[in-house]
User: Fold this.
Amino acid sequence: MEKTFRTLRAILKKHAGHLRVTADTDKLYSLDVGYSARWKKEIYFGGVRLGKSYVSYHLMPVYACPELLKELSPELRKRMQGKSCFNFKTISSDQAAELSELTKRSLQRFAELAQPGTARPTAPPKSRGGRTRG
Assistant:
């Protein structure tokens, strides 16, 4: 699984750009976007963690902006655990290429959100639990 970890870490490193590296070890690599005045804390972008049974690739923009997952392949979708994590024991070159593209789009989406006057990520509407008017 070390090879899988190295592959996934390379994907994040490729797209790191201006992001801040918060961990870079043999078992963990993580990136922060930086400080958010809106949330008053550092914002986690993503990371790779080598565990006992699998390697996890966390990508927070897909949680904040679920529309990023709209065109996700069934092969990559079945690797998802929760809303922003992908687990791998091994990774194919096709999966790595798709995950790299998703990471690139995620960075672009976060950059758009950081610009003044742009839309913010939205949560799905909450159910009112009653009858609808019609």
User: Anything to note?
Assistant: Confidence is low (pLDDT under 50) at residues 116-134. The radius of gyration is 16 Å. The chain has one domain: 2-114.
